[in-house]
Give the backbone structure.
Amino acid sequence: MGIPMPHDLPACRPALPFVTIVSGLPRSGTSLMMQMLRAGGMSVVCDEQRQADLNNPQGYFESACLPGFFAEPVPFKSLQGRAVKVVFPLVLQIPENCPVRILFMQRDLAEILLSQRNMLHRLGLPGALVSDTQMAAYWARELKTGLRKLDERSHISVLELTFREVLNEPRRAAEMVCQFLTAELDQGQMASMVDARLYRSQISA
Amino acid sequence: MGKVLLIGWDGADWEMINPLLDGGELPHLSKVVQSGVIGNLATLSPCLSPILWTSIATGRTADQHGILGFIEPTEDGLGVRPASSVSRRCKALWNIASQRDLKSVVVGWYATQPAEPINGVCVSDVAVQLDWGSVGQRLPMAEEGVWPSRVSEMADWLRIHPFEIETSDLLGLIPSVAEIDLKLDPKPLRLAEVLARDYTVHAVATALLETEPWDFAAVYYPGLDTAGHFFMPYHPPQMAHIEDRDYTLYKDVMCGLYRAYDQMLGRMMEIAGPDVHIVVVSDHGFHSGNRRPLISSHGATPHAEAAQWHRGWGIVAMQGPMIVADDRVHGATLLDIAPTILALLGLPGDKTMPGKILTQAFRVPDFLEPLSDWESEPGACGMHAEDKRSDTLAAASAILQLQNLGYLSALPNGSHPEETSPALVRQAIRESQINLASVYVHQSQPAKAITILEILLAETPDDERILIAVAKCYHQLQNQCGLQTIIQHLDQLGILNSDILLLKAGQYHADRDAVRSRHYLQAALAMAPGQPEVPLRFGELFVAQQDWENAETAFRESLKLDAMSARCQHHLAIVCLTREDYPSAIESARTAVGLKFFFPTAHYHLGLAYHRIGQNPNAIKSLKVALKQQPEFPAARELLIALYQKAGQWMAAMQLQTPTLEA
């Protein structure tokens, strides 16, 4: 199955010699980062199968054919220079021969779990059967282990960004992203995508 | 330091064993009884074997060790599996032994799959499980079921499959087995499965004990419990609902199985030799007499009813060089086995383990100073690597949640070998959480239980079992408003049973409405006449009314139904104290702490009763125990200070008055 082409913009010129992956737990700000990258001029991979809704008013920026990303042969050439969202823990499955730079979104786990719970409630679906405390402890451990594993892989570089900092200092976040990706993106446009009103499920710092 | 052979007989019960011992039918267990110590072993709640056997092996309760039921979800949320060693959060005896360079042999113990890389040999519970398969076809052993792998071939070769059990093997248990048409009555096939599993465990264990070096061995036989669920309904005396034919065919099974167990024990003792400490335990008892549950009015099968037959008292029998002879231990619980075995192995105990060393069993109670915590003791202990162990409930819940949210449609690890519907995975998580809540309730931590139960209730607001559990928590928390809401909900659902009637009685008791409380107690009595809880609650009602005579009558009535109720004995002690019948108070309070040693208020009342008859040295002993078990106990502290002062023990009194000076 090929990587979908509609809605993407031309790849950055010159093409970056790696794939940009936006990752993090669902509800950690991954869709926001994808939106920022697209606004900055990067080609993003998404198929818009899941449309924008109350849970994500600006859209999800996902690709349903991502399981193909993990298949052999890796469609590296079609992803090179572009951004694709791969949520955690799926991001741990990146094949060995694929140079990637990962923008890893971090967010307070209590906020993530609250956001997930609210989303489930809106969808009319049941919540988790274990407490948020237990889930948070589980995810904290998985994230720590997962990021360590990603760090150990020579073809992977990771930049961690916190959701709160992106919202509070979007310009600085855009600058850090561009430096990390060595990409000439429109930082002003990137920063303009941040809308603090979308920061729901906030828990006071 | 000594060697220890720990033998687990699931569901073994003194009520079955004693008549057989008296008849000379269990010669090897008789040797242990005569040359060692025996006692009752109080079980824990919930009474589920994987939980209990892990508590025996770790000395910790389920909220600490993490094994919460028979099955657990897999981490990827796609399947379920038997409770596994990767879910256990603390060290077992074989891990502690490994840490001090002692070798262990572990065979068939619950929740030991995959086998841990211990110093010694481990053959997991799943490795010794067998299926029928086809005649002549040997099904493969579970992967990762044996450590080290060099032992796999031998263990595999020793496995006995059910189809290898012949009719002649069953004759000692079912004398007329040849007359049974197995197509119409497959019960002998169930027995063949039981025997195959037990004989496999025995064959593997004896081979390893003979060929491998060991300091500690733990061998688990499940058959008495498994067979009990099938065949205890047919044990004498004949139950009203059992047909004559079935009774005649199967009445000898359980006694026959105990005799077979005794033979296996004899072989183990022969291999171990006289210098090894033998410890035989069971996780719970099994009703075998007049208190066997009757068939329900809904026509439940004898097998369905058998699952409710667990009795709260298992067995402990120990012998060996360090153990006194021909004596009893009192007040033992499952949690005391691990500390006691550590002492037998010459290893220090653990201050964080809630159980105690059964010091009464030792010739010379001279033990090492316990460690602060074995869990933080550094060094290789043979547990799985940290990245292999996981909180499977949280993992599966997290994955299910992400799937529900649409973020994970398929995991890239490929299909699960035993794909299970998400509903079944969710059910496995629910059961584990219900069991965890039950642990908290029985530890008198209703607030922790409520946190779990309310999450479950949000999903299934009409679940009777959870509603009753929540109601009991509210009752413990004295949350009358919450209790009222639940009871009203149960009424609306039309659910009524003795548990609910007792809750209603409790509610009116709290409102000091003795008439209504009594009404519901009477209704509970009519609905469940053999339930000891009802007269006990009557007794509590009479106590509240200061009607001591009727209270004593009610408590004694409850004890006729359940003589082993520490709580009821304690209530009786309090009534006797109030009536100034101090000798009776002492007798009841001593019985209470004998049944349940960790019982600070009972120790206090025993101390008070001793004091009232002038036996102050005994009073001091009891009050010290009460304070050790519950340091924040003002009444016990005050009385003990007064007694120290009276005895001229000024330093001791001063230390109690200023707790910061205590070591």
